[in-house]
Amino acid sequence: MANESRPCPCDIGDRFDYGGRGQEVQVEHIKAYVCKPSASTDRAVIVIHDIFGWQLPNTRYIADMLTTNGYIAICPDFFVGQEAWKPSNDWGSFEDWLKTRNAGKIDKEVDVVLKYLRDQCGANKIGVIGFCWGGAAVQHLMLKNPHLKTGVSLYGVIRHFDDKSNLLHPTFFIFGEKDDIIPLEQVTSLEQKLKQNCKVDYEVKIYPGQTHGFVHRKREDINPQDRPYIEEGRKDMINWLNKYL
User: Fold this and answer.
1) For the domain that residue 199 is a member of, what is the CATH number?
2) pLDDT per residue over 133-152, tens digit each?
3) DSSP labels, 99-132
4) What pTM, to 2 d.p., does this model score?
């Protein structure tokens, strides 16, 4: 399995050879990738990228998948012009790099994107999904932003917000059983805290045998034994959004 023998804070897996069907736009001080369905809709999803940034083809592929399911999808540059992480970078410098890109400090950008979706796209039912760094950002937003309806956190790094579990909106958490950077004991702890403190609908699901990034990273043709779980994760994500948007 490509690149999976080399442990790192965020497994790059395999990049899709994918160009995207949407377009890049400027939304006030933020660049963003936007894709819209052919039929008009008032439902939209904000897609929060991982450490590899808003231009990663894998993330745009998922945004376009949302559009084929009837959603306006927007993937903003939440690093706001700062360079995304590259697999060739020195992983020893990763923690210092991460300090300047805080998943809990994206509220200004989210407000700008929400205004754009409402005013320019006619959306009034808006959810959010995110991967890894973006998954942690989803949990942050579900804890504090009253304008979002629901969220899906895909292998969000729990340690960033592990002491907070009183969610405002229904939230679905996706994890891989073999994720090297999110141990199952952290997932168990999250479930316990949600059970104690959360008053809205939530679900925590662990997918057997899957490593970090499996929903938007692994290539089905390279990892055929993982294909059912990749497809299940994507279907679960769409079903959750359909339920609450």
Assistant:
1) 3.40.50.1820
2) 999 999 999 999 999 999 99
3) HTS-TT--HHHHHHHHHHHHHHH---EEEEEEET
4) 0.93
